Amino acid sequence: DIAVKNVRSLIETLKKMRSFQFECIFEETVTIANKIEWPETFIEDTKRGLKRKRMADESDDIEERVNAKDLFRRDTYNVKLDKVIQDITVRFESLEELTKLFSVLWLSHTYKDSLIEKNTELLIRSFPNDLDIEIVDELKNMKMVYSANFGGESGETIQPLELLNKLLEMKLNTHFPNIVLPLRIFLTIPATSAGAERAFSHLKQVKNVLRSTMCQNRLSSLGVLAVEHKLARKANLQKIIEDFASNKARRKITE
């Protein structure tokens, strides 16, 4: 939900930039150009004047020169922003559809039972191997638990992450397993592919002289450590070594 709101906000900001903020951006650009002693005029201004092409029904004495600034706004500024807005909209359409699919997890005391049944049916149809019809009863019961324990009397909506944390904190996850499962599915779905794309850029740093003999599992593990290096530095290495040695020892005994 946060990702969808951020995308919508970004699109609205870009639309405002296209419609209302060109002059402000242009003036700021001119100011920066003056500071670095860069010519603030367009290249076209130093060349021959640009003329607008006449239509067939216009007389020969009508001549209109096209301002280089307006030409830049029409053919470059607006075109580029339109392309960015279109690409962002298309790319994140699936994200919005996914949020609508899991909308039943945005729990509210005012959520009608008929709406719960309808939205849950769509969710079960999308994940038939993971979810079953019991989630409907659990969601209906959760409304009462939500009102009594989570402070939902005023009708505010509780976010999926907050709901999952509350269930784990109060140790209610075993009573509502069919709610916990879709919550975990939804909260672990990445909003973008940026994480995976960044992982590819780290492979070059991970590879070394032994890359020809390095197996895929080791390379992937080193890639994860490179990406999550901040978290890796906080890990207790001694505890990890002891756990690893203990597991190896137990496996050897059982063999």
UniProtKB/TrEMBL annotation:
One of its GO terms (molecular function) is protein dimerization activity. It comes from the Eukaryota. InterPro entries: HATC_C_dom, IFN-induced_PKR_regulator, RNaseH-like_sf. Signal peptide: none annotated. Pfam families: Dimer_Tnp_hAT (PF05699). Residues 158-230 form the HAT C-terminal dimerisation domain. This is Zinc finger MYM-type protein 1. The lineage of its organism: Eukaryota, Metazoa, Ecdysozoa, Arthropoda, Hexapoda.
